[in-house]
Amino acid sequence: MDKEEKKLQDIDKELDKSQKSNETAAKSHGEILKEQICEGNEVYKRSTSSILLSSLTAGLEIGFSYLMICSVFFYFEGKVAEDTLFKLMALVYPLGFIMVVLGQSILFTEQTSLLTLPVLNKKHSVGSLLRLWGLVILGNLLGGWLIALVLRWIGPELGIFTEQTITKIAEHVTHFSPLVIVVSAVLAGWLMGLLSWLITSSKDTVSRIVIIYMITALMAFTGLHHSIIGNIEVFAGMLSSPTIMLTDYLTFQSLALTGNAMGGAIFVALLKYRAFVFNV
Fold first, then answer.
1. Nearest to residue 112, comparing CAs of 40, 182, 180?
2. pTM summary value
């Protein structure tokens, strides 16, 4: 047995020893990590069609956050300053995330660190991780495109927002430099990875809702770039305004996805895992 195999066996043994002492005690680092690895492994076992359908559902459901931020922006426009409008949207931004996470649909940014942990634990290959990421991203984007088409039509028809609202939100998301978008997306991916970790550490639904609301509202208030809801914002803006081109959409999406993946995989999965390994 070589040194690497011995090390992996020691890690697995330490994870297996992570048993709950009682129901009221807080979960240990090892318990959370073990649950995360097991949960990630379950996703790897799912069929391609199941992953695509679940991620498509997440892309659709996150659209309810977009519906609310457009509605809030339109309702308060002219009543408060425009910079205040973008801060007010943080109050309703978390709603779609709550639906997605509690409904256990597969959202790329929430699952990034979760799917990376089994690779770090040598249970799956990097190739299988990239394949799974690709499927989840595809499903999330498809769901986002579909809900963007629906909301872009139904919003003006119901009189809850206009195409001008859609354009202003899209321009607000995309007007930054590429470097700013990448770093912003890294921070958002980091927060979403922490969200996944904290959700696993919590024991009841109310605390999970509070965690989701707190982290996603933080992202919205500070304007951090999230690739999946940003997909809806910029895609809808591209359809509504000639000032937002296909190249703007593709550039934003590639930068946001890259940053979110880095934030979730490096700053959460890798650091949390290595912190545990160093203690073994």
1. 40
2. 0.89
